DNA sequence: TTCCAGGACCCTG
DNA sequence: CAGGGTCATGGA
């Protein structure tokens, strides 16, 4: 099926580092969602896919009015440059459990390692679907042993993944309930989970629960914010979050994604900050 | 060899 | 509340 799109870049959307379960083979991107294989590629203003318009609209936020969002967040030359470089980058809508576990795995490591960890989990515990692997359910991961999880190279995060999976599988923690909460309420709940702090909670709220005011602060965002928005001054993560939420006026999450990709691709490092 | 990566947690002062 | 050490893993 062929879907007309405008103001959309599949490449930037899937390769900017917000999502870890799309595999690129030639021009096609593959993932498994709800135990079904989805494949998609972009040709100019069209997406070619075996899926449906509704599903891709949902997963890739094709209905977001990007021009309106650009207008809201284009407040300075840094963010303008990032928007210009990555035009068409959209946030994604991830499965909440997959998103939560993926970002728990993201602690103190890099994107290739995160991808490796979630792929290992999928291969070991997920269902095989047309040659690819679904991300395992909470129920399945809750039955895993710590040794098996460490075998997936999760390192010190294995215990968090196991504990969180057990909380969710046992229904002592209801992930779906977060969808109807405010950003603040939902964040307060997420942070109660072991291995989940402010940054990972913001990632889950942004990529899985539509909380556009979430502003995950990782090392790259810290660098770009500290250098260009706080004159190099050391500042707490919470102050960065609060500043961004006010400054980017309801769309901090979108601004964050562009700034993150920009900082990372420009190899922004501390040595440059100190100039 | 040392440093770093989409951090959280624990302990100190 | 801020600052530092620690935790597994793999690439530069």
In short:
The N and C termini lie far apart (52 Å).
Keywords:
DNA-binding, single chain, two-stranded antiparallel sheet, globular, Endonuclease III, domain 1, 3 domains, Endonuclease Iii, domain 2, alpha+beta, 5-stranded antiparallel beta sheet, TATA-Binding Protein
Description:
There is one protein chain. The protein is an alpha+beta fold. The protein folds into 3 domains: 2-63, 2-Layer Sandwich (TATA-Binding Protein); 65-87 and 213-275, Helix-hairpin-Helix base-excision DNA repair enzymes (C-terminal) (Endonuclease Iii, domain 2, Orthogonal Bundle); 96-209, Hypothetical protein, domain 2 (Endonuclease III, domain 1, Orthogonal Bundle), CATH 1.10.340.30. Helices cover 50% and strands 10% of the residues. The chain has 15 helices and 7 strands. It is globular, with a radius of gyration of 18 Å. The structure holds a DNA duplex (13 and 12 nucleotides).
What fraction of the residues are assigned to beta strands by DSSP?
5-15%
Side-by-side strand order of the widest sheet: 1-5-4-3-2
Query: Might you state the CATH topology name of the largest domain?
Result: Endonuclease III, domain 1
Please identify which CATH superfamily of the largest domain we are dealing with. Hypothetical protein, domain 2
Shape field: globular
Compressed to H and E, one letter per element, the order equals EHEEEEHHHHHEEHHHHHHHHH
* Secondary-structure-derived class: alpha+beta
How many separate domains make up the residues?
A: 3
